[in-house]
Write a structure and sequence with these properties.
Elements lengths: L5 H11 L3 H11 L6 E5 L2 E5 L16 E5 L7 E2 L12 E3 L7 E2 L12 E3 L22 E3 L21 E3 L20 E3 L7 E2 L12 E3 L7 E2 L12 E3 L21 E3 L7 E2 L12 E3 L7 E2 L12 E3 L21 E3 L5 E2 L5 H10 L7 E3 L14 E2 L5 E2 L1 H9 L6 H18 L5 H10 L6 H4 L12 H23 L1
Parallel strand pairs: 2-3, 3-5, 4-6, 5-7, 7-8, 8-9, 9-10, 10-12, 11-13, 12-14, 14-15, 15-17, 16-18, 17-19, 19-20, 21-22
Antiparallel strand pairs: 1-2, 23-24
Length: 483
């Protein structure tokens, strides 16, 4: 297809006195490839060749085609000027084919192409630096699931109008250097591409970038100031990576950021410096980490925050000082944490009752309230007006006076000792037998029958002494019991 017949058709329509729109519609249908379906909607010619079993690109397309769909075929190779000259083409989709090589210049002759999708061509793996030559108006490029190991530095330099790049599910290991300097790029989707770090030079020159997705990678490190050139960034997704720590200036320069997702990492603490410049932040995800500590004032600059996700961490306490001063919060998600519901969470319970913007805060400790929701915990006041923890309240309620346990222990020990003193001495042979049979449990009441009047006269002094000891013992026991 080396020439376009559109001009001749328009002239023919003028001569015959027919509307040019009707002529364009007829041309779209009449020049349609045999395996495709063509239609004109609102004066735009659409060509659908999806699922047609094609092994090569059709030789001709309608000259006025604005959209061509070649999805789910068996295309393996694109030669130079694979689509001829199509001056009206704005959208071209080659998803789910078997493309393994694209000749440099394959898309020449498509001067107005704005959207190009090469997604789900798993055998592609490599793109020549001049693959997209002459696509000066391309604004959206989809390279999803192409198993690309890298993107040549100059590949995207040929695309000055590029605004959106979708390149997730690839094998990059690092943020493609080809992104640097793309002054008009606004959206970059790089999730699930095995990226291991965001270097300080990875995103230079992306001054109009508004959304960056790096979720589901293997990012272990974000260098300080890595986003400093991304002053227009509004949405940053770093969730489901391997981050265990972040530098204090990790988000330096992101004054317009509205969404920050750090969920599903290995962070152990929240540092105040991270959010120092994020005054416009509305959504903050810190869920599914290992956070056990939140620095004082960590969220104090986030005065416009609508939702904070801290669920699925190791938090036992969350201080009000993390939010002050003048903090307003729309929703707070705190479930799946081992909360200790003591006086340090009284502010949270009051906040929950006043605003009702959080729920599901189950107490893990102390034992007196374990299993209860924080809303159900009652905090009392001491006579001085100080908050009392639930375990202290329970102790006070069940034991208003001193515990009798020490006195009871003293009485029992004294009784045991007195029993031994009052017990008659057994002969040596009996003592030996008693030792063999095991110790005999004796008490004051058990020994009294052996002290009865009667019997041999040689026991009389013993009985007199025993009477005195018994009187003393009863007096001591009475005093101990009264105490």
């Amino acid at each position: 297809m080396k020439s376009c017949r559109m001009l001749n058709l328009l002239l023919h329509a003028m001569v015959l006195g027919l509307p040019s729109a009707r002529a364009a519609e007829d041309t779209c249908v009449n020049a349609c490839p045999a395996a495709c379906v063509c239609s004109s909607v609102e004066r735009r010619c659409s060509v659908r060749c999806d699922r047609a079993g094609l092994q090569r690109v059709p030789a001709e397309f309608p000259c006025e085609a604005a959209s061509i769909d070649l999805d789910r075929n068996g295309l393996r190779f694109l030669g130079e000027r694979a689509f001829g000259t199509l001056p009206s083409l704005r959208r071209l989709s080659l998803r789910h084919n078997n493309l393994s090589f694209i000749t440099p210049g394959a898309f020449k002759g498509l001067p107005r192409l704005a959207e190009l999708s090469l997604a789900h061509n798993g055998d592609l793996r490599y793109l020549h630096a001049r693959t997209f030559t002459a696509l000066g108006r391309l604004s959206r490029l989809d390279l999803t699931v192409c198993r690309l190991f890298s993107v040549p530095e100059r590949l995207l330099a040929e695309l000055p109008a590029l605004r959106e790049l979708a390149a997730f599910d690839n094998l990059f290991r690092r943020v493609p250097g080809a992104l640097r300097g793309l002054a008009n790029l606004t959206h970059a989707h790089l999730e699930r591409s095995r990226i291991e770090a965001v270097a300080s030079s990875s995103l230079l020159g992306l001054r109009r970038l508004r959304s960056l997705s790096l979720q589901g990678n293997r990012v272990r490190a974000v260098h300080g100031g890595a986003f400093r050139d991304c002053s227009a960034l509004e949405h940053l997704l770093l969730n489901d990576n391997l981050l265990a720590a972040l530098p204090a200036d990790a988000f330096l320069g992101l004054r317009r950021l509205r969404t920050l997702n750090l969920g599903g990492n290995a962070l152990g603490r929240v540092v105040r410096a991270w959010f120092a410049e994020l005054a416009e932040l509305e959504l903050l995800y810190l869920d599914r980490n290992r956070i056990a500590f939140v620095e004082e004032g960590a969220f104090q600059n986030l005065t416009g925050l609508l939702a904070l996700h801290l669920n699925g961490n190791h938090l036992t306490v969350l201080a009000w000082a993390a939010f002050q001063p003048g903090f307003f919060l729309g929703r707070l998600f705190l479930f799946r944490n081992p909360w200790r519901c003591d006086c340090r969470l009284e502010w949270l319970r009051d906040w929950m009752e006043s605003f009702g913007r959080t729920a599901d805060v189950p107490c893990a400790s102390p034992g007196s309230v374990a299993g209860l929701d924080l809303r159900q915990v009652a905090f009392g006041r001491s006579s001085e007006g100080f908050c009392m923890d639930p375990d202290e309240l329970n102790l006070t309620a069940s034991s208003p006076g001193p515990s009798p346990e020490p006195a009871a222990t003293t009485v029992s020990r004294f009784s045991s000792l007195l029993s031994k003193l009052l017990a008659p001495r057994a002969p040596v042979t009996e003592a030996a037998n008693t030792t063999k049979e095991g110790p005999v449990n004796t008490s004051l009441s058990d020994s009294l029958p052996s002290l009865g009047v009667g019997g041999s006269g040689h026991k009389t002094p013993f009985l007199v002494g025993s009477g005195l000891l018994l009187s003393m013992a009863q007096h001591v026991l009475f005093v101990l019991q009264m105490d």
